[in-house]
Amino acid sequence: MNLILFGPPAAGKGTQAKKLVAERGFVQLSTGDMLRAARSSGSELGLKVSSIMDSGGLVSDEIVIELIKEQLELNSGAAGFIFDGFPRTVPQAEALDKLLETLNSKVDHVIRLKVDDEALMQRIVKRFEEEGRTDDNPESFRKRLDAYNAQTAPLLPIYAEQGKLTEVDGMQQIDVVAREIDKVLGA
Any idea where this protein resides (predicted)? Predict the structure, then answer.
């Protein structure tokens, strides 16, 4: 089973993904984690990723798809895959569909954690004040939130039209959100 979790930063995607990994044996494919791992691996692909990242460039969709393919093949016996941070754009979604098709697979479910942007902003401000995490400063978070909303919005109607999109109220308690996701996945 292949699952895409959508939601802006701080929506709870990581928390829910960890529960699915622990409880269902899914493999979480986080593009950020994969890029960092490739970079430190010393492989040919890792060297390519490293030079792009070191120069401040964005890693191409082709490289990200190659990394995803590698992980799908390495974990072929997994109960399912959670795509985290990918796809973010329509071309990435199309590339993912093509890759999965070559592996006789597909995206089965797309779950969007619906959250209130202003409530998220309040959560981030509080976390920034309490923990001082530099990536959680309100200004950079607003940019990340705006980018998410601009890039992801075009994907939602596509997955809805395919009958794969389910929206879950991400403002609920963690366990309630997890139960809603379980219902979607047939638990």
Answer: Cytoplasm
Q: State which H helix or E strand residue 64 sits in.
A: helix 61-74
Residue 133 annotated to the active site: yes
Q: What is the pTM of this model?
A: 0.84
Question: How many Å apart are CA 1 and CA 58, to the nearest integer?
Answer: 29
Mean pLDDT confidence for 5-26: 91
Mean pLDDT, the chain, as a whole number?
88
State the residue range of the domain holding 180.
2-185
Would you say 12 is a known binding-site residue? yes
Is 142 annotated for ligand binding?
no
- Check if the beta carbon of residue 87 is closer than 8 Å to that of residue 155: yes
How many structural domains is the chain composed of? Answer: 1
For residue 56, the Cα-to-chain-centroid distance in whole angstroms is 22
pLDDT exceeds 90 at position 19: yes
User: Is 13 known to be catalytic?
Assistant: yes
- The C-alpha atoms of residue 148 and residue 177 are separated, in whole angstroms, by 21
Residue 58 marked in a binding site: yes
How many angstroms from the chain centroid is the CA of residue 76?
A: 19
Above 70 in pLDDT, residue 90?
Answer: yes
pLDDT tens digits along 91-111: 999 999 999 999 999 999 999
- Residue 142 annotated as catalytic: no
Which helix (H) or strand (E) covers residue 35, if one does? helix 31-41
The question of whether 144 is a catalytic residue gets the answer: yes
